[in-house]
Amino acid sequence: MFTIFVTECGGPAGIGIIKSFNALGKFHLVGLDADQNVPQLCEQHFHSPPATDPSYWPYLNQLIKTEKPHLIVCAGEHDLQILSDHQDEIRETGCKIMISSPETISICQNKWLFYNHCRHYLDVPFTLIGPLISKPNRSSGSRGFKIHMKELFQEYLPGIEYTVDVFCGTNHEPFMIVPRQRLQTKSGISTKAKILNDNDLMKKTRRACQHLKLIGACNLQFKEDTNGNRKLLEVNPRLGGGTVCGLAVGANLASYYLYHTGLSKQKPEDISIVPRTVVRYFEEDFI
User: Fold this and answer.
1) How much is the pTM?
2) What does the angle CA 272 – CA 278 – CA 281 come to, to the nearest 5 degrees?
3) How far is CA 19 from the centre of its chain?
4) Are 170 and 247 in contact (CB under 8 A)?
5) Cα of 124 vs its chain's centroid, Å
6) Would you give the DSSP letter of residue 177?
7) What is the largest CA-CA distance in the chain?
8) Do 209 and 218 contact (CB within 8 A), yes or no?
9) CB atoms inside a 10 Å sphere around CB 263
10) Strands (E), 120-246
11) In the CATH scheme, what is the code of domain 3-97?
């Protein structure tokens, strides 16, 4: 039986990938989280230091050597850079991991770097960064004058918002693309979404994956401008909080992790995207 680590297991993305593995069969799932009060959905849980703490990597490194997992799945934002920086060390232990390069993650986690890296190749919203000034169109005596030193200013996009979930191989080619319209969100997480068969979003996603050199599970955020053009807002080179919605059309990310790391010879089934709406709800766990 394979042992699989899921980091930041208590977040929406962690819960989603745990459900995805459970839908495939029996695994020894090990959850790690800095919050000890998380849903107990794994066979084993470890209360880890926060990823922002210098002790996080030494703790995780020792745990990998002790527990000998076959696969590590990063389900959070905070340890993404750490796991990418140490991915070669992780593989040296015999453990599998599919994650983008440190350079790619640095670009995606910095909105100004992201804009400058993408603006000549991808359709992204116009962006400026301070120092800038703002002032009313009509004023006198410096009334309403403000200085903005480090703030980021971006083109306003009033239209429909989309998320596209992907899984990219080591050649940055997407093997799975599932676009969805975000119908309702809570704290930035989709609670109601409509799966779409949208060639325009799929084409833009393939181009972005190659340009940013994405690997593994990622999600891309698009939003329409005043003319209805879909612009790439941001890319998260990790599992998304609503990625589990893909199960509605047979897109199980757990199967892609297993197949593309060589832990399974069972090739993921082809996806047939039929538009349908996914509604999410709360479920209690008493611990």
Assistant:
1) 0.91
2) 145
3) 16
4) no
5) 18
6) E
7) 73
8) yes
9) 15
10) 127-129, 132-134, 146-148, 152-154, 161-168, 174-186, 189-195, 216-224, 230-236
11) 3.40.50.20
275, pLDDT greater than 90: no
Domain spans, the chain: 3-97, 106-123+156-279
CA dist 124 and 283 (Å) reads 37
* CATH code reported for the domain at 106-123+156-279: 3.30.470.20
Element (H, E) at 44: strand 44-47
The pairing of strands 3-7 and 28-33 is parallel
State whether residue 200 is helix, strand or coil: helix
CB atoms within 10 A of CB 287: 9
Q: Which residues 6+ apart lie within 8 Å of 245 measured at CB?
A: 165, 178, 180, 190, 193, 195, 278, 280
- Indicate the helix (H) or strand (E) that contains 277: strand 276-279
Residue 69, both tokens? 């997992």
Question: Is the separation of the CB atoms in 271 and 178 below 8 Å?
Answer: yes
| pLDDT digit string, tens, across residues 97-120 | 999 999 999 999 999 999 999 999
Q: What is the pLDDT of residues 163-184, one digit of tens each?
A: 999 999 999 999 999 999 987 8
Cα 217 to Cα 80: distance, rounded to the nearest angstrom: 12
Q: Is the dihedral of CA 280, 264, 74, 165 positive or negative?
A: negative
Check residue 141 and give its pLDDT: 66
Q: Residue 3 is inside which H or E element, if any? A: strand 3-7
Ramachandran angles phi, psi of 111, nearest 5°? -65, -30
